[in-house]
Amino acid sequence: MVPPCCPDRSPSPALSSNEFRRAIDRISRSLALALLLLLGGCSGADLLNGLASAGGVRVERNVPYTDRLTLDLYEPEEPALDAPVLVFLHGGGWDSGSPADYRFLGTVLARRGVRVAIPAYRLWPEAGYPAFLEDSARAVRWVRDRAPGARLFLMGHSAGAYIAAMLALDGRWLGAVGLQPGRDLAGAIGLSGPYDFLPLTGKRLQAIFGPEVGWPDTQPINHVGPGAPPMLLATGLDDDTVRPANTARLAAALRAAGHRVEEHYYPQVGHVMTIGAFAGLLRPVAPVRAEVLRFLGLAED
After folding, report:
1. Where is the BD-FAE-like domain (predicted)?
2. For 60-80, how does the pLDDT look when each residue is reduced to its tens digit (9 = 90+)?
């Protein structure tokens, strides 16, 4: 039996996986051949980052937001006055991943008018729950101070989607830095996220989230209540890393509480491709990029 949530096995798009092979079937033969030739010994993130164009994008890397932690910024060279600001929280099972893996995402969104911040946060075994929530809340505070009047959104993939959902639903974390989810967030986006994954059956997850008595408090679904921002939740129906039921259950809970929520399910798409499909080469795999841009109030090109 597949557990309700399995840990991430890859911090970035693993294009040599079976999921990539399924994705190939959804794009043209010529494009598939080109991708296979380009892969060589590169990781999926290296390939997508190497092909991402930074034209029209202003990039700042390793900008400190605390004494120890940094973030990467991707902004249009000439942002519109009403350009949305997006804090993207990377995945990696709370023990791996880096902002540098997502250069392709930052440049793609910035070229379409979004100001993007991708923060690092403490990972296991350096720190477990709730350190990654505390760090991410500090990053959101930094971004809010940099762009005080902008529409501010959160987005995360996998473990990052968990963090985004917790910041949006459990007011303790943003509250600790003087923010309120319903007041300060224009919306939150979760891609392939674990939101309702008890019991924790693996020793690694048990170590990350601490004693069993506290596990219910770690679940985003248990914090659905008044004051949540609008949310967009999306997942692939072939996800065997985080069950799509996580998305369905959280969406149902939000809807029952009277909150605005969009949910999208992509047939024949697995865990990695909900983020990989932001890249131009993989855009045909799933319409996730267009749906995210629409949620941000922008049009897909």
Report:
1. 71-254
2. 999 999 999 999 999 999 999
Domain membership flag for residue 284: yes
The residue length of the chain stands at 301
State the residue range of the domain holding 260: 18-295
pTM greater than 0.85:
yes
Domain count across the chain: 1
Confidence of residue 25 (pLDDT cuts 50, 70, 90): low
Residue 4 within any structural domain of the chain: no
